[in-house]
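Fold this sequence, please.
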Amino acid sequence: MKKYIKIITIFAIALFICSGCVTTNLKTSSPYGTELSQSEIDSNLAEAKGWLEQAQRNNGDREKDILYMTEALEKADASLEDIGTTAEKVIELLIAGYEAEAAFWLRLAIEKTGDSTEELGYCVEALSKAIYVTEYLAARQAGE
């Protein structure tokens, strides 16, 4: 069950980024119906940019960094372009993170003496996420 929750989370992140939920224009109201000051918008944009930079530095699973980035963008009612990136670049970061995570677990499984079932399971899980997001995006692009 835990595996499916993670896959659903990944699907939600990819869908959120690609669906335009991250808006294209800065506005002065939050999605919660309250007015935002320019300093609040700037603060949320800085937070989103920080999470993007963290994801870019991260050598493994970038899922949480990207999720926090999208949450900060949503608070600011801002776009990915407002922090200098695109949906394509964010998805590439997400997939590259899963691939790096899979390589890490595979390396550990190879180097381990004894049963490496757990490490191989983590490797397969990371690869499954990368494949899932890639196939989802390919299907989405084919439908456009």
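The longest helix spans residues 117-143. Residues 2-143 form one domain.
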